[in-house]
Amino acid sequence: xxxxxxxxxxxxxxxxxxxxxxxxxxxxxxxxxxxxxxxxxxxxxxxxxxxxxxxxxxxxxxxxxxxxxxxxxxxxxxxxxxxxxxxxxxxxxxxxxxxx
Length: 100
Known about the structure:
Elements: E1 2-11, H1 15-31, E2 38-43, E3 52-61, H2 64-85, E4 90-98
Antiparallel strand pairs: 1-3, 1-4, 2-3
């Protein structure tokens, strides 16, 4: 099992709008690709800066091929939609982890 994690730093002033958009748009679009079998979203409680808040979106995939398919075929469109929607109000970084 692989975990594809995206950690987002979001300006606090748009936090609720961002959460709603993630729940109604971004995450359903990720899951509808068929490359992930489940997901979880967590709010990061440590190292919270005054002007921003962080969230971790964790998507579970059965194989590296599924993750690569997501990254090559689906991620560019989703990342661009997120960038346009929340321009200059967020940062994001990805991590790929393997269950041991």
